[in-house]
C-alpha cells in the first residue's frame, strides 16, 4: 500500500500578499486526508513545519525576506527528502510557491542518489522564472524555477547540495499566462518548455499534456507542482495572484486524469491556496477534487487497459 506523507508549510514568506500561510489547514478542512484514504492509501499527516514569521519588509538587494525564505525551504527540503527516503509519497501543503525550491531540490537530490529520471510538471499561471534583476517586487514566489535552475542567491541555489538542483529540460510548464517581459526573454534563453494558454487554446489540453508527459519510462519520478492560480479565477478565487483566462474545470480535470494515467507521480506540491481571498473554502475544495483525479478518480467509465 502506498504511503502518503502530508507536510504542511504554513508560510507566505515569499509572497506579495498575506494569507497563503492558512493554506495547509484549508486543505485539511476541505477533506484532503479523507479523500486520500478513500483511495486505500495509507496517510501520515506530519503536521506543519515551523519557521520564521513573516516580517513584511521591503526588498533588500532585490530579495524580500531572503534569510527567512532560505530557512523555510531548508526545513522543507529536509522533511521532503526524509519522506522520500522512507519510501513515502510526499504531498507538500503550501504556503506560497517559493516552497517549490525546498520541495523540488529534495526530489532532485533523491533522484540523483537513486539513479532516477526526474520530470517536473509545473501547473501555474506564472513561469516563476524571475531573478532579482528582472522583478521590481523582490517576491521570491516568482523565482523558484529560476533558483532551482541555478539562477539566484547562493542561500537558495545551494539547498540540496548541488547547484543547479535541476536542468531546465526536466521542467514542463502548463497553463502559463502571466510572464514579465524580461522573464519571457530569459525563459526562451534557457529553453524552458512552456505550454501556455495560447497553446492550450489552439491545440487543446490533451495535446499539451501528451507532449509534456511524452517519453517517460519505468525509471521516471514525476513531480507535480500545482499552484492553484493555474486554474481560472472564476472557479478558484482563493489565490492572491489571480490571472483571468486559465484552464476550465474540465480542462483541469483532463490534465490531472492524464497525469494519473501515467502511474508515475511520486511527489506533489499544492501551493498558494489563500483562504483570505476565498469564498467558503471553495478553492481548497476544488484543489482536493482535482487531487482526487490525480490519484485515479475519473468522470468517465472506461475499460481498463
UniProtKB/TrEMBL annotation:
Mn(2+) 1 binds at residues 97, 128, 227, 229. GO terms for molecular function: arginase activity; manganese ion binding. Its EC number is 3.5.3.1. GO terms for cellular component: cytoplasm. Binds 2 manganese ions per subunit. It catalyses: L-arginine + H2O = urea + L-ornithine. It holds the Pfam family Arginase. Belongs to the arginase family. This is Arginase. It comes from Hydromonas duriensis.
